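Q: I'm writing a short methods note and want an example of a predicted protein-small molecule complex. Could you take the sequence and the SMILES for zinc ion and return the bound structure as tokens? Please keep the output block clean; save any remarks for afterwards.
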Amino acid sequence: MATLYLLETRAAKNYKCSGCDEIIPRGTMHFRHDPHPMARLHRGEKYTHWCRKCVMATNPRPKEQVTRRLFVRRENIQRTDYQLSLFDVVRIELVGIGCNLSERLSGNPKLIHSLSPDEFEDFICNRLHAMGFEPRQIGSTFQADGGVDVIFWPRGSSSFPFLGAAQIKHHQNPKRREGPGTVRDFWGSISGRPFSAGIIVTNTSFSPSAEWFARQQNGLIRLRGFEDICRWLENNFSSEAEWREIPSTIELAPGMLVKIR
Ligand SMILES: [Zn+2]
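A: Understood, no commentary inside the block.
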């Protein structure tokens, strides 16, 4: 358990802080680490609870603002002394302000181009979250991430779990298109790994040959650009356009055509 994904929440009962062993009284704000569902199933990894003092002492970056999760290295908690400044305590209250990014952008989607790459990634995670996924940003943790910036899976108790991989490309210049190289590299990273869906999101668009390459992968890779993001900003996730990689007819056996839509 090297990385903690901490959700700030009220303690449902008395917990013992996994960092300092102090009691976290029921009803007080604290942080809960939610292990990945698979880690919970296979390795029996448990939810753990952390007091504010321990977490704030690591001076966490307000990273996963979308899911309101803080991203803290486990070992940082043990190494710190517990000198807290008022600044740290105040700063944590601000976590979550990034959720307003989507609201701000919906008035003027073109502002997307002026975001920083990190802000754009936060924003896309916010939209994935709105679609019902649990997004997890991984780019800053692993250098050799093979072009996967975010992993996501259906949130809640889905009866059909799967893992998705996303690569998020931000360009300042709205005219810059993603070419086939990006798609080919991404495909190389996710094929042969346990991903059932891959998505490349850019704030611009894709070249025709990039679109062509993606189409050859039988729907494993979806490309989403500025126009798609504009729909997502309006919380419209069920547009016909989301189905464009899914054929209207499938040939299951020679001559046996099944019409899907
Ligand atoms: Zn503690």
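A: Remarks, as requested: The radius of gyration is 21 Å. The domain at 99-251 is CATH 3.40.1350.10 (Trna Endonuclease; Chain: A, domain 1).
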